[in-house]
């Protein structure tokens, strides 16, 4: 049976150009694979660092829980220090997040909500402050760089005069 595959003739100049381009593509492929491996190694190291820092936060919480479990009637001094201890654990946790550019959204009660940064989850009747004023921050919001990861949840004033 005869060979029916087509034969293409290309000029020597075109052949050399194709060989050169193929060489460039192979070189680019090797560089991309190397870059991908380096990025995977970097990502793995960053993930491990994050987990180690989160484990420190977990260790601090576990130490508090262990103490409470082993001391059903904690001393008044411990109870007095407990809010500061929990605050320290919270600061440590927020520090871990902050190192990775995950930062709390800064809003204040008594201001009007920025709907790009917060979500109104409830309204309360108030006559002492203007309508739409934030009366309470229910849950803190966070942004990752410029992106709002989780909006702040707020309660706002609702004037009783129908506004």
UniProtKB/TrEMBL annotation:
SUPFAM superfamilies: Head domain of nucleotide exchange factor GrpE. The keyword Chaperone applies. Keywords: Chaperone. The keyword Chaperone applies. GO terms for molecular function: adenyl-nucleotide exchange factor activity; protein homodimerization activity; protein-folding chaperone binding. GO terms for biological process: protein folding. It holds the Pfam family GrpE. InterPro entries: GrpE, GrpE_head. This is GrpE protein. It comes from Dolichospermum compactum NIES-806.
């Amino acid at each position: 049976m005869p060979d029916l595959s087509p034969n293409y003739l290309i000029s020597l100049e075109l052949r050399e150009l194709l060989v050169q381009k193929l060489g460039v593509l192979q070189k680019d492929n090797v560089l991309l694979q190397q870059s991908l491996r380096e990025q995977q190694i970097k990502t793995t190291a960053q993930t491990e660092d994050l987990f180690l820092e989160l484990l420190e936060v977990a260790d601090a919480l576990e130490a508090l829980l262990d103490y409470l479990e082993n001391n059903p009637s904690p001393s008044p001094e411990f109870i007095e220090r407990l809010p500061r201890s929990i605050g320290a654990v919270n600061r440590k946790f927020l520090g871990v997040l902050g190192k990775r550019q995950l930062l709390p959204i800064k809003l204040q009660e008594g201001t009007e909500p920025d709907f790009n940064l917060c979500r109104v989850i409830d309204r309360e009747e108030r006559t002492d402050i203007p309508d739409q004023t934030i009366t309470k921050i229910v849950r803190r919001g966070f942004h990752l760089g410029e992106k709002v990861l989780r909006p702040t949840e707020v309660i706002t004033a609702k004037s009783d005069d129908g506004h």
